[in-house]
Every structure is written in structure tokens, then in C-alpha cells.
Design brief:
about 230 residues; 2 domains
Length: about 230
């Protein structure tokens, strides 16, 4: 990957390790600002190919210049994630953005039940996106309705789960690896999985490790990107 003005304008594909608590939009803005500052460019196109929530970290594909025309192509690739579900407690946002709203016993769970439930989500499933999301409904983002306490009917969508592996069980937490189609909400999967286990669950940690054949291990931090520019 070349780091010079011509390469960024012609089109670069950057694999960025998005830090925790950054929005994907903030990453794009930071990279655009760094490129413009370094080369004295007044305007350059920069965009990302698939949002990661602020409470998630990991691989973000960022495109510059003419490469932004291929963003949809990268968005359509399968994604791979690792992380943790917390069993026995549900939240309205399905993750740590909101406080726990309901607790249930996990005394009835054992390793076999936990593993079996995961197999039932493999393949084509219907999933309802979380109301605490940026999906638009009647011109407004869903989280705007959620924060006002307004009720919204959210349409289910079809997604595909290629792999759902429970890699470690340390109740109330379980570690997972999930490979899935675009548009899959791992938060929603956590909530649905908790419902299946009759105990509730929410997403505690999430890391995107791959987008298609692009791997997190080949990504760079924003700090390293800035150093390479200089």
C-alpha cells in the first residue's frame, strides 16, 4: 500500500483497526483530515464499507478517492466477529449502551443447552434490528425514537449465519465466534439467543476480525496510519 497524494486520490483501500468508543464516522473524518493536512488537499473522498458500533472494535474498511466507488462491493462481503454474551440479563439496546432492564435465573443452563441453542441460529434466519440503531424509519433514525421512549414497529430482515461457535463458557459470560452475511446485528443475535435460552442476554464485547478475505491482523491503528503519512 502506497502512502502518497496520488495514491489516495486514485484510490486506496485502508484496513483500519477501529478503537473502542469511536464511531465509524469519526474514523473516516480523522483519516480525511489527516490526508488533507499532510498533502494540502482541499477535498478528497473518504468513506467506510460497513459501520461498527462505538462499543465494538476491530476491522473497518476505509476507501479513499476513486476506491469509494467500490464501497458497496465491500459492504456485501461476509463478516466475522468474536466477542462475549452476558447471560441472565437483558438491556433495551441489546448491549451495554443502556442499563439492564430485566434479570433472569441461569440455573437451568448447562454446556449442552448453551451449545445446542447456538446451532439453532445457523443458516437463514429472520432478525429484528435493535431500536437503538441508526436504521431510518419515516426519515428518523431508530435510536431517536428509542431515546424519546416512543414505540416503533421494526420490520424483520433475513440474514444468514454461516458459523456460530461458542468457544468458551464461563457463566454468566460466554465467548463466541460468528460469521454472517451483511446486515446482521450481533446485538440482536445476543438478545434472540438469550430468549432461546429463556434467560435473556446482551452483548458485552464485540470485535470484527474479518470482512470477506480482509483480516484484522493486517489492519493498522489510526496512530500508525498517522505515522506512516509523516
Amino acid at each position: 500500500m502506497e502512502f502518497n497524494e496520488e495514491s489516495f486520490v486514485d484510490g486506496n483501500l485502508l484496513l483500519i483497526n477501529k478503537p473502542l468508543k469511536w464511531t465509524s464516522f469519526q474514523v473516516v473524518n480523522k483519516i480525511r483530515w489527516l490526508i488533507k493536512k499532510q498533502y494540502g488537499i482541499k477535498k478528497i473522498k473518504v468513506g467506510h464499507a460497513g459501520t461498527l458500533d462505538p462499543l465494538a472494535e476491530g476491522l473497518l474498511i476505509v476507501c479513499t478517492g476513486k476506491m469509494t466507488k467500490r464501497i458497496t462491493e465491500f459492504q456485501n462481503l461476509n463478516k466475522t466477529y468474536t466477542g462475549k454474551f452476558y447471560l441472565g440479563a437483558s438491556t433495551p439496546s441489546f448491549d451495554l449502551e443502556t442499563e439492564i432492564s430485566e434479570k433472569k435465573s441461569i440455573d437451568h443452563l448447562n454446556d449442552d443447552i448453551i451449545q445446542q441453542a447456538a446451532t439453532e441460529f445457523k443458516g437463514k434466519i429472520l432478525q429484528t434490528p435493535p431500536i437503538y440503531s441508526a436504521i431510518k424509519h419515516k426519515g428518523k433514525k431508530l435510536y431517536e425514537f428509542a431515546r424519546k421512549g416512543e414505540t416503533v414497529t421494526i420490520k424483520s430482515r433475513e440474514v444468514f449465519i454461516h458459523e456460530f461457535i461458542i468457544s468458551k463458557i464461563n457463566l454468566p459470560e460466554i465467548n463466541f465466534k460468528i460469521s454472517c452475511s451483511k446486515g446482521t446485528y450481533i446485538r440482536s443475535l445476543a438478545n434472540d439467543y438469550g430468549t432461546k435460552l429463556n434467560c435473556g442476554a446482551h452483548l458485552k464485547e464485540l470485535k470484527r476480525t474479518a470482512i470477506g478475505d480482509y483480516k484484522l491482523q493486517n489492519s493498522i491503528s489510526i496512530e500508525d496510519f498517522e505515522k506512516k503519512l509523516k
